[in-house]
Amino acid sequence: DAGITQSPRHKVTETGTPVTLRCHQTENHRYMYWYRQDPGHGLRLIHYSYGVKDTDKGEVSDGYSVSRSKTEDFLLTLESATSSQTSVYFCAIRTTGGATDTQYFGPGTRLTVL
Amino acid sequence: AQSVTQPDIHITVSEGASLELRCNYSYGATPYLFWYVQSPGQGLQLLLKYFSGDTLVQGIKGFEAEFKRSQSSFNLRKPSVHWSDAAEYFCAVGGGVYSSASKIIFGSGTRLSIRP
After folding, report:
1. Is B49 an interface residue toward A (CB < 8 Å)?
2. Does A102 sit within 8 Å of B46, measured CB to CB?
3. What is the pLDDT of residues B70-81, one digit of tens each?
4. Which of A27, A113, B7, B31 is most deeply buried (CB count within 10 A of its CB)?
5. Average pLDDT of span B36-55
6. CB pair distance less than 8 Å for B97 and A96
7. Residue of A103, A104, A109 to mutate for B, most B C-beta atoms under 10 A
8. 3-class state of residue B107 by DSSP
């Protein structure tokens, strides 16, 4: 599992409230990713990071922001949650080096926005 | 633009039959290509990947995939499926780990059902 944890694992919140999801890794990987998974859409990339304070947008970044102030933590913030952001959120790290290049995923966070 | 298309939303095959899941990608350079599997209620597991060299790659659980640059495809195959192969399969494309090229995009997935 590459030492990836996500918190919280489940959250119910109301429209308009801010929400922060945390991804924590213990193995000092440089590359981290946030995806959301919805039926019929697969996994869609929200934001990714290629180092401390180095982040970039993915396919569906509107309404989301991220921060990475230290290697082990990658935070995803919904500034003002909407019902369309109800989803399962997965964090991933990427190991690098050709043959060993692989993403490992966290257990996911199920977010419900009422 | 970087993208992945999995044209088959749902496929049903009989146990013991052969399987091919299609994946087409768009990427401006030589891609890294991946296939992942997700069983119900589970996380994603890497089946195999292509990053260079031999275009026919072998993976776990008896799966293989062939990279065809001319067709921008990376189809997943298995000669004989087992009931335990029922799951959702995702194809993904990305670049090498050079700053902004490090993003990886997934397709929308193909759900595989197995007929006894």
Report:
1. yes
2. yes
3. 999 999 999 999
4. B31
5. 90
6. yes
7. A103
8. coil
